Amino acid sequence: MREELKPIELTREVTFTPGVCFDPEYASLEGTYTDQISAYRARRVWTEALETNFLIDSGHDFLIKVESFVDEGRFTLKCDFLTACGRYAFWRLTHNQAPEAQYLIETAHIPFSEARITEHSFGADLAPREGHEPLILDQNQNVEEPGLPRPKKGLFSVCRALLRGKRKGASSLPS
User: Rounded to whole angstroms, what are the CA distances from 31 to 50, 135, 142, 149, 154?
Assistant: First the structure.
């Protein structure tokens, strides 16, 4: 028994923005693409990039899966980081600590060919999911934790004096 294939009418506009975003609450990356080939190409490149740049294992440290939403015309690639090593790799990616791996993930859906060479330089940047603020701190911003005591300057000078005194005292001891 063979099912009859029905054509899909694309009468509405695409309501999503293709690209890669991250969710800091769940330590996950999500890539949204307009075709299935790009999603599966990106899955292969993401796996290779994470395994080679961070030495983490697919299936143990991170899980990657492709979800198809054919009615909406989008294909989603989702990567969940499971272990501490995986979450550290996620942190490095989202805090600009691994630009090579971040670039590979951002441009993973673009095929390597002469015709597409310019698209690699215009790949969309990794961005937080909607509703989350970017995790980039302003360099001029004061980043002190509220409620944590600040060390006293006098304490450092006392420790330094004790260390100097021990060194002086050690040289004056008879051998």
Answer: 15, 18, 33, 41, 52
Q: Are strands 74-81 and 28-33 parallel, antiparallel or unpaired?
A: antiparallel
| Measured distance CA(88)–CA(78) in Å, rounded | 17
Report if residue 139 sits inside a domain: no
Domain with 87, as residue range(s), is 19-128
Q: How many domains does the chain have?
A: 1
Position 166 in a domain: no
| Residue tagged 């939403």 (tokens) | 69
β-bridge pairing 19-23 and 127-128: parallel
Residue 95 vs residues 24, 44, 99, 101, 104: alpha-carbon distances, Å: 11, 23, 9, 12, 15
Overall pTM surpassing 0.90 (yes/no): no
HSE on the CB side for 149, CA within 13 Å?
4
154 within some domain: no
- 133-169 per-position pLDDT tens digit: 444 333 344 444 444 444 444 555 665 666 666 555 4
Integer Cα distance of 64 and 78 in angstroms: 6
